[in-house]
From TrEMBL:
Species this chain originates from: Nymphaea colorata (pocket water lily)
Domain of life: Eukaryota
UniProt protein name: Uncharacterized protein
The organism's taxonomic lineage, starting at the top: Eukaryota, Viridiplantae, Streptophyta, Embryophyta, Tracheophyta
Amino acid sequence: MRADRNKRTIVEELGREVRQLITSTTEQVAQLELLDSLERL
């Protein structure tokens, strides 16, 4: 039982980290696209 609970906790933590990585990557892409658009003006 305890092993299952620990595994679930690890999976939840990994999921949170992956979500944060995706968020920061998406923000970086948005910033690059914004800079690219500004340079074309």
